[in-house]
Recover the amino acids of this structure.
């Protein structure tokens, strides 16, 4: 692995972006950390970047050779802002692009699926990361995590369907490899954890780790769609509810060896992540 050039990390303050930036720095690479607030992260060069402000594109790209792409959150049509940026990136000298997508969105599918389809035609070196649902959805700032903390419940329309939930640390480890290896993957990579779990399984593990009772409550498709529409655009809410319905039908009941194949180690289990990230909750409960 050769240390050359600069990697632009878009969404550098986010769940995978911050971890990817840290992993690149730890491996000795130069990182330009792009975010709307131009937040300074240890060891990086901060730069302001906003998908909806093309005036920020040029400074972010200056001198960069590789880019980690996190699409604008909650936008049902990210291609409208991403494709002009990607064309500019190619002209500016970016030769490798790694895109964060989703296991639920195939090439040419809705939203970021259109960017997936376009990427190979824009860059000679590329990869599309298609992680399953993040384990951090239950430990961080996601609606599931808030619902766990506030109501002791996980609300989904996924029924008993199982998901190969994946640790954001593992996603970032693959991203670093895809960005810096001598040869780019030049393919899409479905990323999962080591086992497929239902939301009932997740609730049981969180209960055991924190000592606080957590349950999984099933909603109908319409109930989930309407609930989500209160916080995201209606089209995006419908797409997310469709994904839960697909989980209920078995679409995400799978695991892959991608993390181990690219990083040389097994992916982390949900119990490991819960122990690591919910330890404070458990310890606080023990004091009370």
């Amino acid at each position: 692995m050769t240390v050359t050039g600069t990697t632009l990390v878009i969404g550098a303050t986010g769940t995978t972006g911050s971890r990817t930036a840290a992993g690149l720095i730890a491996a000795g690479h130069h990182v330009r950390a792009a975010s709307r607030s131009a937040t300074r992260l240890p060891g990086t060069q901060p730069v302001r970047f906003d998908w909806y402000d093309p005036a920020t594109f040029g400074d972010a790209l200056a001198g960069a050779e590789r880019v980690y792409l996190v699409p604008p959150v909650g936008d049902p049509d990210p291609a409208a802002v991403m494709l002009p940026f990607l064309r500019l990136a190619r002209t500016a000298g970016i030769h490798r692009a790694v895109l964060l997508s989703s296991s639920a969105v195939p090439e040419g599918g809705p939203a970021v699926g259109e960017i997936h389809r376009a990427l190979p035609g824009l860059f000679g070196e590329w990869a599309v990361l298609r992680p399953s649902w993040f384990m951090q959805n239950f430990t961080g700032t996601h609606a599931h995590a808030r619902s766990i903390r506030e109501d002791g419940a996980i609300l989904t329309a996924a029924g008993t369907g199982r998901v190969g939930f994946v640790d954001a640390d593992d996603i970032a480890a693959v991203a670093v490899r895809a960005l810096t290896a001598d040869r780019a993957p030049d393919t899409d990579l479905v990323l999962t954890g080591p086992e497929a779990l239902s939301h009932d399984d997740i609730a049981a593990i969180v209960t055991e780790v924190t000592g606080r009772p957590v349950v999984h409550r099933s909603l109908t498709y319409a109930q989930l769609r309407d609930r989500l529409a209160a916080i995201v655009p209606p089209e995006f809410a419908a797409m997310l509810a469709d994904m839960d319905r697909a989980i209920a039908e078995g679409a995400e009941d799978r695991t892959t060896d991608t993390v181990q194949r690219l990083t040389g180690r097994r992916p982390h289990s949900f119990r490991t992540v819960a122990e690591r990230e919910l330890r404070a909750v458990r310890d606080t409960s023990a004091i009370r």
Remarks:
- The two ends are 50 Å apart (CA to CA).
